[in-house]
């Protein structure tokens, strides 16, 4: 039996894809290895939202190849979809499989004989019209199987390198929602991807190109999967997507995200649902009212902002004004006074001036954010912003980012301190609290915040937990297992983490 090691990069949707791929590979007869250095096949499920994300993948490919030259590397995900030829030239890469064919990944390895350790031979590719086509080993074309053409083959030596050419499978992304069950790596808080793709065309974003059009998992299937996760003992499920608020628009005009939430709440007994991230114009008064009255919905909204300058929002092709954004955030705070509220904010977008930065700072200062994910603009080939002649110098971009992080750090500390003396509902996590500095920049998609803590005997023997309002907790002296919903009396703050004691398991 051949072994594999899978690493996922990027957003919660990508992490959910990676968990699904692990399940597919295990079901196909592959054994999971502890690390790439000891595996036969290294699978990298990539992100391409920034140039830094691309560079990280290339660095890891080189590191794997140096440490284990016999390991065959398979690169999939968004970077593979965007730049397959670039990846295919790297030493050690045997397969490049885009998002268009990611659901066939296990079949490709089986057909290649990888599970049994055989040499690569003819690779069968199922085209959209279900016609079987094959790519003999030695084929060097890089074409698009989803259009009914032949993928590049693996097996021919690349001139001057002595390395077999990578097999490339990248094509157009169809309208079908390819789904596999969520399997959480940490055994708590599974991510259920209910939507994929995006129909928006933000000037900076490559995601619609590499993820395709918006498409949704039918609501009956979502309900079925939530029930299954609850039967397995999970207490919290994170609903995720690339553009979650667009859920259902591709299925039926009567289906929407609010209706999906109501169905899950009405037809399952899952104790907690968390919304990973939702665009501002999809934060409706009805959604806020539902979150306020239904305690099974986590008190946490992550609403991407990108900029606090209306001029920059227009250049970005974002679909709201700052006044509309502020109206929704303030409505959340009024209905849910202790909700965790976060946002993504970009610095250095082409054309951004010092005045635009000042407007963003002032706007963010006025709103009740409890954390921000601040990141620098990164030019993505093929996007409208990449063609702008008004690129901002990198040094200035990073200075603006530091100023925003400093601003939100004080807001976050104030929010943490406001929780002292309260009782918070939380789910215990599959780890002990990790020592870290104060967390001011959080994940863009609702991933767990980093946990900090003081160096005491109590915190060295503690259980980490995550509150409904998205705050890291240390349950000092607790021997509770992971994946338990508890009520916690909050006593103090240390190192960006709330410390408390369980009052009701």
Main traits of this protein?
505 residues; 21% strand; 5-stranded mixed barrel; globular; 6-stranded parallel sheet; 14 helices; alpha/beta
How would you describe this protein?
With 505 residues, the chain is α/β, with parallel strands linked by helices. Helices cover 30% and strands 21% of the residues. It contains 14 helices and 21 strands. A six-stranded parallel beta sheet has the order 2-1-3-4-5-8, sandwiched between helices. A five-stranded mixed beta barrel has the order 17-18-19-21-20. It has a three-stranded parallel beta sheet with strand order 9-12-13. The longest helix has 25 residues, at 394-418. It is globular, with a radius of gyration of 23 Å. The protein starts with a strand and ends with a strand. Residues 116-162, 436-446 and 450-459 have low confidence and may be disordered.
Mean pLDDT across all residues, rounded?
86
Give the count of helical stretches: 14
Mind describing the biggest β-sheet? 6 strands, parallel
Helix content: 25-40%
Q: Unreliable segments (pLDDT under 50, ≥5 consecutive)?
A: 116-162, 436-446, 450-459
Question: What proportion strand?
Answer: 15-25%
Mass-distribution shape = globular
Global structural class = alpha/beta
Write the layout of secondary structure elements.
Layout: E1 3-8, H1 12-27, E2 31-32, E3 41-46, H2 51-67, E4 72-77, H3 78-82, H4 84-88, E5 93-98, H5 105-111, E6 123-126, E7 132-135, E8 167-169, E9 191-193, E10 195-196, H6 207-211, E11 215-216, H7 219-231, E12 236-240, H8 257-267, E13 272-275, H9 285-293, E14 300-302, H10 310-316, H11 322-335, E15 340-347, H12 354-366, E16 371-376, H13 394-418, E17 423-428, H14 457-460, E18 462-467, E19 472-476, E20 485-494, E21 497-504
Parallel strand pairs: 1-2, 1-3, 3-4, 4-5, 5-8, 9-12, 12-13, 14-15, 15-16, 19-21
Antiparallel strand pairs: 6-7, 10-11, 17-18, 17-20, 18-19, 20-21
